[in-house]
What we know:
The protein is built from 4 helices and 3 strands. The chain has helices at residues 6-11, 24-31, 35-43, 60-68; strands at 21-23, 49-52, 55-59.
Amino acid sequence: MVDQTLPESISDPENRDWPPLMEWREFADWIRVRRSIVEGWIRLAYIPTFKIGRHRLVNVARLIEQIQEGEFS
Length: 73
């Protein structure tokens, strides 16, 4: 289940306590979604990611921009 306070914390410009990049497993834990679900989103390119070496990171900053622009309705 997705954290219900997440949309409010994302839309509040004073509350920027999220990192711009986050390891995908940590991201899954943060939004309280099974890791297999997030892994599928990444594989299908539903969420923006950035790869550094062997590490796949969720581009949280870009994802939040997309949410605010209404790209995920």
